[in-house]
Amino acid sequence: MPTPYLTLAEVEAIAREAHSDRTDKAGRPYTEHLAAVAEGVRARGGTDEQIAAAWLHDAVEDAALSRQWLDGAALPERVKEMVLAVTKRDGEDPAAYAGRVLATPGALLIKESDLAHNADPERLAVLDPATRARLAEKYALMRGLLAPAGGGLPAGRGEGGGPATP
Q1: d(C-alpha 100, C-alpha 121), whole Å
Q2: What is the Cα–Cα distance from 150 to 131, expressed in whole angstroms?
Q3: Beta carbons within 8 Å of 106's beta carbon, 6+ residues apart
Q4: What is the pLDDT of residue 1?
Q5: How many angstroms separate the CA atoms of 17 and 133, rounded?
Q6: Closest C-alpha among 105, 83, 72 to residue 6
Q7: pLDDT for the residue numbered 26
Q8: Longest dimension (CA), the chain
Q9: Per-residue pLDDT reduced to its tens digit, 27-85
Q10: 3-state DSSP call for residue 83?
């Protein structure tokens, strides 16, 4: 009999524990970012698999969980593929990264939610001006790369089944 998959609540608990000692650039608990990205995916009509991947979206990239953990985790392959799609690789060109996100079913919605939270004006406002400008430029570049014909991410829509909630 196959091992049952982790529940969404179990994935959330694992992600929260793995990132429990981290803070974001503003000094806030990093788990707040994970929760916001997962909620953004849910609000945009994402599936439970996309929500699970949202909880884990930074785990491998930030070494909070290892690639070996992800490979062996009781998760659907689609979740693992989405997590790896949104995991930046050292020295990777932004266009190659965006291409992988776009080529992986379901990953765009996760990245859209991640960018939306990262670029939240209230979140950016607490950063020093140089960091705020650098990040705003970085997020704008990624939005352009992820958009059809470079026109920016479509407002209010993502991959996952429905219009976003404003």
Answers
A1: 27
A2: 25
A3: 46, 47, 49, 50, 53, 78, 82, 159, 160
A4: 65
A5: 31
A6: 72
A7: 85
A8: 56
A9: 899 999 999 999 999 999 999 999 999 999 999 999 999 999 999 999 999 999 999 99
A10: helix
